[in-house]
Amino acid sequence: MTRIIAFANQKGGVGKTTTAINIGASLAAIKRRVLIIDLDPQGNAGTGLGFVRSAHPQSVYPVIMGQGDASANILSTAVAGMHIMPSSPQLSGAEVELLDMENREYRLRDALAPIAGHYDYILLDCPPALGFLTLNALTTADSLIVPLQCEFFALEGLQHLMGSVAEIQKKWNPNLELLGVLLTMYDRRNNLSRAIEEDVRKVYGDKVFKTYVPRNVRISEAPSHGMPALFYDFNSPGAQAYLRIASEVVDACGDNGN
């Protein structure tokens, strides 16, 4: 069964793309078939995997607009078993274009239906906003991972996001569930990081991943080399954290490998 996981947070800079890339690579490393879909006009998922956007015409834009097939807009990555449907600068105008389109909330879901069964996991990297692109991701996904930076306003932003998710569950996708909140950029020497962790775990309990993503220079360096942290420096704390997180994802999804 294909699991479709959206990575969403209306705040930028919290590690959505880094998390999607590194969980994807970790899942591929344990022989799962993975597709990453980059719904952020900035296109960082493709860049982080070594793609130069101008060199590839493929993108999610024609797919969500009904101008191209999903299968024709997928690229293989250097990570065995992991593919990507890249972003496009044209996505910047997609929010406005989708306004007048029929079935605008389900464009991505319907477009992916023919190819979903080819993958074990489809990972949707959302833009840092709760617009139509993120809405399409959340109506397509069955699970949601919220990367959460350990900073002062984190919990307030998370509560706002979960309020929006509750509305989406009620109106468009009753099957959407919170797979987990993932603490990112965690500095265990910092009292604030520990305080945020305590608050988030108090509110969301076992919906918070056991593993957190530490502040780690190797995670930050890896995208500039066009590869996930796992392949840039396997033994780094960041790469090892994402391997453990991928194991938690597999367990939460009831994935026994069959």
List keywords for this structure.
258 residues, alpha/beta, 11 helices, seven-stranded mixed beta sheet
**Termini distance?**
9 Å
Strands, total number: 7
Backbone shape? globular
Sheet-strand content, in percent, reads 5-15%
| pLDDT averaged residue by residue | 94
Unreliable segments of 5+ consecutive residues: none
The helix-strand sequence is EHEHHEEHHEHEHEHHHH
**Strand order in the largest sheet:** 3-4-2-5-1-6-7
Largest sheet: 7 strands, mixed
**Percent in helix:** 25-40%
Class from secondary-structure proportions: alpha/beta
Number of helix segments? Answer: 11
Determine Rg (CA atoms, Å): 17 Å
Describe the protein's architecture and organization.
It is a single chain. The protein is of the alpha/beta class and 258 residues long. Helix content is 39%, strand content 14%. The protein contains 11 helices and 7 strands. It has a 7-stranded mixed β-sheet with strand order 3-4-2-5-1-6-7, sandwiched between helices. A hairpin with a 5-residue loop joins strand 3 and strand 4. The chain is globular. It starts with a strand and ends in a 6-residue tail after the last helix. The mean pLDDT is 94.
